[in-house]
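Q: what does this look like with xanthosine-5'-monophosphate bound?
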Amino acid sequence: MNKEHPDVDAVLFDKRDIESMVKRMGEQISRDYAGKDLVLIAVLRGAVVFMGDLMRQISVPLAIDFMAVSSYGDKAKSSGVVRIVKDLEMDIKDRDVLIVEDILDSGLTLKYLMKNLASRKPASLEVATFLWKDIDGKQAAVNPRYVGSHCPNAFVVGYGLDFAERYRNLPYVGILKSEVYA
Ligand code: XMP
Ligand code: MG
């Protein structure tokens, strides 16, 4: 048993929840991408933990690559104006691209990224997000094809997700205590 971190209010998804979420997504992706030319693209840094688990639950051949983006302006709120800090090593033209994200909130970051990737003419372009904060009937700017779980509108950490670069190594997803970021 993992002892809960003192800065965590409540555990949302424990190790076993995560395992079954990722397994289900991997099975769906394996089915949908049979016979295709799959490239997984993880958005650094939050998605690395999910990427590592997800790729091992996918049974069809695949390649992986990484991108890093940085948002302009307010850190807490997505502006949708992002700069590519690290670009792909790979040419994705005519390949079946699946973007791997840790958490989708407004979707503005991903919308920008998808527009950029679409201009490179992949055969297909879809999104797999581990969590989706789709609260209050709010519409995200992009529609993910694969979703691990919906998630409450709270600040969550662990399983790759950070606050000020901390907590990424927690093996579960938890709600961060508000006094930590207040
Ligand atoms: P948008 O609004 O563009 O933002 O979809 C998505 C990005 O914002 C970050 N984000 C979070 N990071 N806990 C985190 O550690 C959260 O609760 C959270 N909500 C949003 C994340 O980097 C994501 O890619
Ligand atoms: Mg992120």
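Residues 15-153 form a domain with the Rossmann fold fold (CATH 3.40.50.2020). The CA atoms of residues 30 and 60 lie 6 Å apart.
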